[in-house]
Amino acid sequence: MSPPDIKKLDALPALPRAVQEIFHVVNDKDAPLSAVAEALGRDPATVARIVAAANAAFFVGHHTVYTVDDAAVRLGLNRVRVLATSTLLASRFRPQDCPAFDQGRFWLRAMSVAMCASKLANYVPLETPSSAAYLAGLLHHCGVLALAYAYPRECERPLMAYEVDRDSRRLDDRLSEVLGFGHHAAGAHVLRNWGVPEAAAAIAESYSQDDYDGDYARLQALIRTCIAWYREGYGDMPDSPLLRTLPDTKIANIGASCRREDDQLRSFALQLASAA
């Protein structure tokens, strides 16, 4: 395979400076809720979606919330971060010129893997703080979004084939044949340009590799497990050496929690897609 076409990679989307500043505060594990709420206040559309999510039908019976602070109490700060980051990216990168790109499915997968990773990360040792797992999960597939946005015509046929086989490695190969680089290289390039922590960029670059042994091997194994588990509907846990010490009851409880989360995130993913 030829090396990535760096000139083309440099044409991939950048985050506007104002959005980049919000993005970094929202995803700073040390940022207090007050700082996150203040940053999100600069983007009213994102605040509106988070508050709407907190008031959604699955919280029926609860009192109405009106602020990010109240939404974080109801949803949890990790959920707010996942929803906020997804909204920021979905509103800036809208690949509507690439009909083969299923935006609802993309965002459901991204958010579901992120939330699954955030739950499992509490029980396994990683190279990073456990809080990094949700960001790596959320952004692992972002190269596909970037390419569908930047090269909609070129991506149409590879994405149509992907809808049939759902094989990320084959999608990477097909995109490389057309563009000179695939979604793994694109995702890593975009995330590094955005100043995202290196762990997330490394996962975007490597998550399809069976034999990855880089600096974030345990985090990569966790994200791969979450992707596989999501695809199976959170039934039996895929075999993973990283999780073999977890009791079956713990795995069953986390799986049940992920299924509930998936149902809740599905409506939000459809909202993101419909707004594009």
From TrEMBL:
Alphabetized Pfam families for the sequence: HDOD (PF08668)
InterPro entries: HDOD, RNase_Y/CdgJ
Domain HDOD: from-to ranges: 12-210
Superkingdom in the source lineage: Bacteria
PROSITE patterns on file: HDOD (PS51833)
PANTHER family for the chain: HDOD DOMAIN-CONTAINING PROTEIN, PTHR33525
Name of the protein in question: HD-like signal output (HDOD) protein
